[in-house]
Write a structure and sequence with these properties.
Elements: H1 19-34, H2 44-64
Helix pairs in contact: 1-2
Length: 73
């Protein structure tokens, strides 16, 4: 697994993950599985779309998780 992707849920983070943190993790994931640090121009659209979709799925996952010991306000 990509070591630069960090855990984005409490208690690993004291607060909810930001959109920027979620997008950064999605980018690292897509880079890892595609094998491209930066895609060629002809692959940029599909690469960027994959990052958006992974970020959206990550945000949905984090929003739906119930973490023990986490207070809700």
């Amino acid at each position: 697994m990509c070591r630069s992707i960090k855990t984005l849920r409490p208690p690993a983070l004291p607060e909810e993950a930001t959109g920027e943190e979620i997008t950064a993790a999605a980018l690292q994931y897509v880079r890892k599985i595609s094998g491209f640090r930066a895609p060629a121009a002809h692959n940029k659209e599909v690469f960027d779309q994959a990052v958006e979709e992974v970020a959206a799925a990550t945000a949905a996952l984090l929003a739906g998780l119930e973490v023990r010991g986490r207070r809700t306000t």
